[in-house]
Amino acid sequence: MLKKDNVTGKPRPTAPQINDSMLTRESWKIFQVIAEFVEGYERLVHIKPSVSIYGSARVKEGTPYYKLAFDTAELLSNSGYSVVTGGGPGIMEAGNKGAYRGNSFSIGLNIVLPGEVCNNDYQDISLRFRHFFTRKVMFVKYASAYVAMPGGYGTIDELSEILSLIQTRKTRRIPVIMVNRKFWAPLIAWFKDTMLAQGMIDESDFELFSVAETPEEILQQIEDFYKIHGHDQEHPSGL
Fold first, then answer.
1. Alpha helices in the chain (DSSP H)
2. What is the distance between the alpha carbons of residues 69 and 93, in angstroms, rounded to a whole number?
3. Angle separating helix axes 132-141 and 20-44, nearest 10 degrees
4. Confidence class of residue 118 from pLDDT cuts 50, 70 and 90?
5. I want to staple 90 with a disulfide (CB 3.0 to 4.6 A). Which of 21, 57, 82, 133 is the partner?
6. Residue 217 and residue 69: Cα distance in Å, rounded?
7. Is residue 239 predicted with pLDDT exceeding 60?
8. Percentage of the chain exceeding pLDDT 90
9. Under DSSP, is residue 54 helix (H, G, I), strand (E, B) or coil?
10. How far apart are CA 87 and CA 95, in angstroms?
């Protein structure tokens, strides 16, 4: 059904009628989302300070990237930081495994995917999410730092998310560390040669992240940041 628009004079579509059964199904999805937030808040409120580690699920045990993630997580865990990963294989498994060997919590924010069971076995606290967006909030909510190991689309997604939130001041400033300069250099060059050159970002936006090579350098960058800024920052948005 069409109606005439008062501004353009052209016919415009009208919203279709929605029956009660459709509304009920959609409304119950809201409660599923709320339940994921509530469980996440209740089970993770005590894990601070924590570091969220991202990276490829396709990295195999015994490879340099796997060892780097393992060693980083173990060092962070023994330094008093809980370690949060996506709970799956690859870099996520290495991160949980390293943290599990250390003294602090190893947390997995597992996602339910069709036909896949990929939770790793090295989690003190294990949560299961149906929705990517609720899971993303949990990655940010209690994080004292973000560590982006080499990875694919998912890693780029998480990296873009935290940089955007910090840039727009929707979350507090935390260290965002991209690990392995050789892997990330082409992306950083694109930031500069394309986005900055065309005015899509500012020069100051390059201060929102740093690059590190070793577990010791990662830990040092986190500790140096909080020597300057302190640990008592709150999310401006209240998230």
1. 20-44, 64-78, 91-101, 132-141, 153-167, 181-190, 215-229
2. 9
3. 20
4. confident
5. 57
6. 13
7. no
8. 77
9. strand
10. 9
Distances (CA, A) of 141 to 137, 213, 216: 6, 26, 25
Give the per-residue pLDDT at 2: 54
Residues facing residue 129 across a β-bridge: 111
Residue with tokens 């199904």: 25
Asked whether 146 and 196 are in contact (CB, 8 A), the reply is no
What predicted TM-score, i.e. pTM, was given to this entire model? 0.86
217, two tokens: 């350098």
CATH of 20-229, one of 1.10.260.40, 3.40.50.720, 3.40.30.10, 3.40.50.450: 3.40.50.450
Q: What number of residues does the chain have? A: 239
What is the residue-averaged pLDDT of the chain? 90
pLDDT of residue 92: 97
> Omega into 49 within 30° of 0, i.e. cis?
yes
If you search the block for the tokens 């990295």, which residue do you land on? 59
Residues 74 and 94: their CA atoms lie apart, in Å, by 9
pLDDT tens per residue across span 66-94: 999 999 999 999 999 999 999 999 999 99
